[in-house]
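wait is this the right file?? whatever heres the structure
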């Protein structure tokens, strides 16, 4: 019968910890289309930065032609 109290305490702890995880899926007030545009722009900038700075690296890190990705 003592498990009831432990269960309640555990729920409280989980809620306290769960607050930080919910910030990952926070609502930023954008529509799905706006979010797609924002993410696409960020990805293009990231790829341009990688292409400009990583062209001299010998290792590759997976390599391949990224122009066929959509």
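ok assuming it is, sequence goes like this
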């Amino acid at each position: 019968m003592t498990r009831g109290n432990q269960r309640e305490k555990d729920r409280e702890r989980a809620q306290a910890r769960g607050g930080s995880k919910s910030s990952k899926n926070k609502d930023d007030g954008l529509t799905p289309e706006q979010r797609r545009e924002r993410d696409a722009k960020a990805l293009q900038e990231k790829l341009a930065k990688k292409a400009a700075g990583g062209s001299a690296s010998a290792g590759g890190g997976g390599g391949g032609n990224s122009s066929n990705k959509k």
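The chain has a mean pLDDT of 77. so i think its the right one actually
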